[in-house]
Every structure is written in structure tokens, then in C-alpha cells.
Amino acid sequence: MLYQSSTFGNAASLEKPLLLPSNKITENSIKNLDRIPAHETHKIGVLYIGPNQVNDEVGIFTQYKRNIDKSTHFIGGLDSEEGDGNFAYMWEDDVMQVIFHVATLMPNHDNDPQANKKKRHIGNNYVAIVYNDSRNHIITPLDQGSNRVCVDCKPELKEPLGHVMDPKIVSDKSLSILVRQWALHCNLAAQIQKSLSNKMPYSSNWLERLRAIKRLKEKLQKENEMKEEEDREQGSGRPQLNDFTEFVIMRKKKGNGGSGNSVGD
User: What dihedral angle (degrees, nearest 10) is formed by the CA atoms of 175, 178, 182, 183?
Assistant: First the structure.
């Protein structure tokens, strides 16, 4: 059910909810809305490069599992029925979800010796967390339970990511928190950069959901206006119950009760 709450904004200026008709248009509109996640979603790879593996096939590092929660409806393109495995690791808070593409959780296939099926997910991500035991860069373990963390990015992202470009020395205890936050900043910057390169302003999932609700509302209002105009032309005295509150009141007066979907912005 879509509803308009009087607890937000100026209650005196809020419009009343509108009753959604039970038809195919409403059903399709709600299905389209359900395809837009309520959370901000991010996909991030986790890589491990062992000693002397700079030029070898990289392994996948899963030490960060302890800070990654259970699986969720957002699976970041993974498909349990198409050979990507049965589990994935994610982290979430009240406003965002992050899916980690960990290749060791995906099964090996005899017909794919180069593990291209695994790499396609990480290769399509904007950001990868690299734990580098070959003493080069990105995340490098140091002595005394500490790590050196730095960010490597494309030239066009150096300006928006200037606040994280300087290397940091961080303890093992705080490593996952810092790296996750940096990865989220980098992924968001990459998403915005891509939208600008396509000459399309970046919009969050929240904004896209609001736009979808407003489109549905505008469509319903136009349909109601057309029906009212037709009734006036036909001289019908039947009242138009386009207001959800009035509709419920009239149903209760008739002793029928009833409920319905409503939409508001």
C-alpha cells in the first residue's frame, strides 16, 4: 500500500490521498516501483593478491566476512541458478546496502578454467577492495597489527576523491570500517561520474521512487479529471469518490467497510 502520512511536512498543505483503481495500469505501475530498491545499492569486489602474485591470477580475500551481514534481496547481479553460488555477503544500514562479490563463494566449472564467470562480476564493478600481500599498494599489511591503505583511481575521479587520496595507516581492528567507507565513497563518485558523462544528472533510488509515485499520481489525476468531464457532459448526478478518505467514510456509512490502495507524494 502506498500512503501519505500527515506526520511529515506541513499537515495543512498536504493533499488528501487518492484511491488507486484495481486495474492493469495500477498493477504495472506498482510492479515498476517495486523494481527500484528502497535502499541505495552498491556492488564492490574483494580481492587478495598473495606474495609474488603480481602477475598471476588473483585470489579472492574473504577476511572481511566478520563485518559483512547476511544475504538480502539485493544480490548485485548474482544468480544462484546460473553458477554464481548459493551465498553472498553484504553490509547494510538504514539507507544503503552493499553486496560484496567474493569469487571463493562461487563454484568452479570444468569448462571455465580461467574463472571468467567469476571475474565478470568483479570486472564490471566500479570499485574493488584489494588486500595486497605482495607489498605493492592499495591495502598492504604492516607490522604491529597495522595496515597501509591507499586509493588508486582513474584521473577523472582524482578531484572528487581528493579527500581519500592520501595513504592512511590503520589498525587491523579498524581496517574493515575504514575500507568499507572509502569503497562506498569511491563507488558513489564513480556512479555520479558515469551519469555526468552520459549527460544524465545522477539521481538516488529515493528520488527515482518519488518520481515513479508522482507519475502514478499525475496519471490518476488526469484519469479522474477526464471521468468528471464525461459525467458533466452526460449530466450524471453520481458523485465522484476520488478522495480516499471520503470513499472510506461512505463505505462505512453503507455498512460495507472496505479498504483500498492509496497514493500520495
Answer: 50
Q: Name the nearest CA neighbour of 39 among 65, 67, 73.
A: 73
Give the largest Cα separation in the chain, rounded: 87
Say if CB 129 and CB 46 are below 8 A apart: yes
Pick the closest to residue 146 from 170, 128, 113, 117 (CA basis).
170
Residue 65 and residue 71 in contact, taking contact as beta carbons nearer than 8 Å: no
Q: Which three cell numbers stand for residue 44?
A: 564492490
Secondary structure (DSSP) of 127-146: EEEEEETTSSSSEEE-STTE
What is the rounded distance in angstroms from the CA atom of residue 132 to the CA atom of residue 184?
A: 19
- Cell numbers for 176: 574493515
Q: Which residues contact 225 (CB under 8 A, 6 or more apart)?
A: none
Which amino acid does the sequence have at 71? S
Enumerate domains of the chain plus CATH numbers.
11-17+205-231+239-263 (no CATH), 40-197 (3.40.50)
Q: Report which residue type is found at 178.
A: L
For the chain, helix, strand, coil in percent to 5 are: 40, 15, 45
- pLDDT tens track for 36-75: 888 888 888 877 666 655 444 443 344 444 444 444 444 5
AA letter at 229 = E
Residues in the chain: 265
pTM of this structure: 0.62
